[in-house]
Specification:
Residues 160-185 are annotated as: Disordered. By secondary structure, this protein is an alpha+beta fold. It has helices spanning 20-27, 139-149, 195-202, and strands at residues 34-36, 47-55, 65-66, 72-81, 85-99, 106-120, 129-130, 135-137. Strands 2, 3, 4, 5, 6 and 7 form a six-stranded mixed β-sheet that branches. The chain has a two-stranded antiparallel sheet with strand order 1-8.
């Protein structure tokens, strides 16, 4: 199975040699976010930058907003070789879609995240991630960084007033308060009663007005 290189990398992997290396590569589980680092291994001080645009392979997030499958994820990586392993610094941009947590309006939410992580050479070191077969797999880091950045209660705008508790209409789209008057239904029968009616009712039959 050929080695996978993130889109944007200038160098291409060489064909695997027959024998032991072929078996090692075959056992490596490549993902869309796998990056080769063989040119940096055990070369402290060496550095390489990689830009990529990848279609998100799976939905990220289960709340009111999420990054849908197929949404483009743009990344800028800096890969640095140090004595312990490969230090990866990443800056990512993508877009989450969903609904406002107050008024339920459809929204697009820009997502920008950054992270830095060391991929160790040796599994004996106390690090969470390792270099495998001259590659680093950024998929779990990207997934966790994006999901944790998504707001629990997203809003379409900071001052969104939400929904009317009685009608369910969006308050931002409701008429101005002085354009209508709420009337208690118990007083609706008196809505047509005016001051002139009150004067007429108080006048004695046959009496003349001054």
């Amino acid at each position: 199975m050929p080695r996978h290189v993130v889109a944007g990398s200038e160098r291409r992997p060489a064909p695997p040699r027959a024998g032991v290396e072929s078996l090692i590569v075959a056992s490596f589980r490549s993902t869309p976010f796998t990056v080769h680092v063989w040119d940096l291994i055990n070369r402290p001080g060496q550095m390489r930058e990689v830009d990529f645009d990848i279609a998100n392979p799976e939905k990220l997030g289960e709340g009111l907003v999420a990054v849908e499958t197929g949404e483009s994820i743009h990344g800028e990586l800096r890969l640095e070789s140090i004595h312990e392993g490969i230090l990866v610094s990443a800056s990512l941009e993508t877009t989450a879609v969903g609904v406002c947590g107050r008024c339920l309006r459809d929204i697009d939410l820009p997502v920008e995240v950054e992270f830095q992580e060391l991929f160790a050479y040796s599994s004996e070191e106390a690090y969470d991630y390792e270099v495998h077969d001259d590659h680093v797999d950024l998929e779990p880091l990207i997934r966790d960084a994006v999901v944790l950045s998504l707001p629990f209660q997203p809003v379409c705008q900071p001052d969104c007033p939400g929904l009317d508790p009685e009608t369910g209409e969006r308050l931002a789209e409701a008429p101005a308060p002085d354009s209508f008057e709420s009337t208690d239904p118990r007083w609706a029968a008196l809505a047509g009663f005016t001051a002139s009616d009150d004067d007429s009712a108080g006048q004695q039959p046959g009496a003349e007005r001054d």
